[in-house]
Here is the input.
Amino acid sequence: MPRSSVPPAPSPAPPLGALLRRYAAGTPLACEPVDQGLLNRGYRLATTRGRYFLKHHFDPETADPAAIARQHDATRRLAGLGLPVAPALTGTDGRTVAVVGGHAYALHPWIDGRHRNGAQLTEEQCRRLGALLGVVHASLERVMPPRRAEERAESADPADTFALIDDLLARVRRHRPADAFDELAERRLLERRDLLERHADARPPQGGSVGWVHGDFHPFNVLYKGGTPAAIVDWDRLGVQPQAEEAVRAAVIFFVRPAGTLDLAKVRAYARAYRRSARAAPSELSAAVHRVWWERLNDFWMLRWHYERGDTRADPQFPAASALAVWWTRRYDAVSEAFVG
Here is the structure.
């Protein structure tokens, strides 16, 4: 899921008058915050000229107007290829990004639809989802600039993770009065330390071959109308990364069950369609599975949000996500086979 290195802050009310004048979008009738999303702020906006999604690019890591404009250009080009996206509207100044009071905003058409997780998808819809992500990756290669030789990220060093676990354990044990979240956090941290001690020699090499990716492909960033994707939204993390790893990360978010297991039948349907659509070799997916598994073993962003920043918005995701790392380790071969079989 999306992450930020900065703590949340109160979101200022959007300057509707100034923004709507820039887009010649009429006068406001209603403006309601959209609750979903961990990084930026969104609003359901109704005006005398229609319905819109107003996005406040609030997170400093993704709020650079030039980067946002690049994302908008990418989605405009993807729309031209027939992909389900919601390109930003162009203002009267010819720009898609409006900077008002030092804050960056964009106006998009409102897309009627709803988010659907893997439990709400049939196997046929899972195949369509995998094929769609493959088309996204292939299409981005067509519409984005040629990739430079990117330095590939090193995998997490378990020595650093052990130090982080110790720090988090100390924070958990200092929290008073202890609650159910603290009890689960301590148990999972001890459990994860044991797993890393037993699997420290499984640290993978650098990431695989890179390409343009959405960067944050998960259920809250895909809108469905009926059983069909109506729009892929939130392109804030558009960038160059190993594409197969995005496919694996997306699958383990879509198809994780509340108990922290994966629906492997749906993973298999999704992955086969992705491989065909993206022309990805099974070996590429197998290596990506290993790297993402290792990433999950060493990743504690939800606990860091909770204990370092006092931000509890990701807490509901923690039980399933923390259990998944353990279950995945125990069922490693079965998970890998689902992605490559």
